[in-house]
């Protein structure tokens, strides 16, 4: 577990180590099957996998990169995408999210397991069943890592989490835990998921009211609360930017007074949250059909 957080070279060596990832996955599967999701060894295994999934899209070996990104060649040439990972800009995001992963292997081995739906379901199972904060945080964090990029892999993982594995109810529960880092990681994961336009209506329906409910009335002093608050605002921005329906949902759950208060609280400590709230307000105002409702 310590070695897995030793930087890019350490991650590379561990991903390449024959049988290591398979053994970790095998152990966790056994722990879940035996109804023992809270043991320390399971926590260690998940924390290692969390670390090994960090920057995975960027650090993948060339052979995987080519097979995963091969379909991008069919994307129209005006994207001017050089090489496998040349363009990560938001401009090509829309097209990338329509590019599916190659057919999943039924028996993934080694690094292939890290983004496979089997492991995604394991993380969601641990989020639901474990009561150990580090295990919950590492499971959420691994999914956050896997959904962090803008290529086909992050969007395919996001679709598995939301649509194929029905993961939103488990993630929603984590928004209401008392542990601040677990809550922060759950919100960061939702922020990544909410960038995928095809999933936004599902996410808004399932968790938008919960996101509004955990917004603070004003931004308290701690860094972690400010970061969480900023992340919530950016998630709500993603969900409401192109959906008047979702903006109305935010309004009906009494989110507007909270967001206004946060946007006006521009102390040094809370400036990140204040800026995020201001961006959200600006975006909400672009829904002209809601102006009279806002004024009320």
Describe the model.
One of its GO terms (biological process) is desmosome organization. InterPro entries: ARM-like, ARM-type_fold, Armadillo, Plakophilin/d_Catenin. The protein has helices at 8-16, 20-33, 40-52, 56-59, 62-69, 93-96, 117-129, 133-146, 152-164, 168-174, 180-193, 200-214, 223-240, 244-252, 255-264, 271-285, 291-295. It is an all-alpha fold. The chain folds into 2 domains: 1-63 and 110-167; 196-295. Helix 7 (117-129) packs across helix 10. It is elongated and about 60 Å long.
Number of helices: 17
Instruction: Supply Rg.
Output: 20 Å
Give the % helix.
55-70%
Instruction: Please tally the β strands and state the result.
Output: 0
The biggest beta sheet, please? none
Family: Belongs to the beta-catenin family.
Subcellular location: Cell junction
InterPro entries: ARM-like, ARM-type_fold, Armadillo, Plakophilin/d_Catenin
Protein name: PKP2 protein
In short:
Belongs to the beta-catenin family. The protein has 296 residues and is mainly α. Helix content is 62%, strand content 0%.
Name some characteristics of this structure.
296 residues; 2 domains; mainly alpha; PKP2 protein; cell adhesion; single chain; Armadillo; repeat; ARM-type_fold
How are the SSEs placed, and which strands pair?
Blueprint: H1 8-16, H2 20-33, H3 40-52, H4 56-59, H5 62-69, H6 93-96, H7 117-129, H8 133-146, H9 152-164, H10 168-174, H11 180-193, H12 200-214, H13 223-240, H14 244-252, H15 255-264, H16 271-285, H17 291-295
């Amino acid at each position: 577990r310590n070695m897995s957080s030793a930087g890019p070279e350490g991650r590379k060596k561990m991903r390449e180590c024959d049988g290591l990832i398979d053994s970790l996955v095998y152990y966790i599967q056994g722990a879940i099957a035996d109804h023992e999701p809270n043991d320390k060894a399971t926590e260690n295994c998940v924390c290692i996998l969390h670390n090994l999934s960090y920057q995975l899209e960027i650090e993948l070996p060339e052979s995987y990169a080519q097979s995963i990104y091969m379909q991008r060649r069919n994307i129209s040439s005006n994207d001017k995408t050089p090489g496998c990972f040349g363009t990560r800009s938001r401009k090509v995001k829309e097209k990338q999210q329509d590019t599916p992963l190659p057919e999943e292997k039924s028996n993934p081995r080694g690094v292939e397991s890290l983004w496979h739906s089997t492991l995604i379901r394991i993380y969601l199972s641990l989020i639901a069943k474990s009561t150990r904060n580090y295990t919950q945080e590492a499971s959420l964090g691994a999914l956050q890592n896997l959904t962090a990029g803008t290529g086909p892999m992050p969007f395919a993982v996001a679709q598995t989490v939301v649509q194929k594995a029905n993961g939103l109810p488990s993630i929603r529960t984590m928004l209401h835990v008392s542990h601040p880092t677990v809550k922060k990681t759950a919100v960061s994961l939702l922020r990544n998921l909410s960038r995928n336009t095809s999933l936004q209506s599902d996410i808004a329906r399932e968790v938008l009211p919960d996101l509004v409910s955990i917004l603070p009335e004003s931004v308290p002093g701690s860094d972690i609360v400010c970061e969480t608050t900023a992340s919530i605002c950016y998630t709500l921005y993603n969900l409401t930017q192109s959906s008047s329906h979702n903006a109305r949902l935010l309004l009906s759950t009494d989110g507007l007074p909270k967001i206004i208060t946060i946007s006006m609280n521009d102390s040094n400590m809370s400036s990140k949250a204040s800026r995020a709230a201001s961006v959200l307000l600006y975006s909400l105002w672009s829904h002209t059909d809601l102006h009279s409702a806002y004024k009320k």
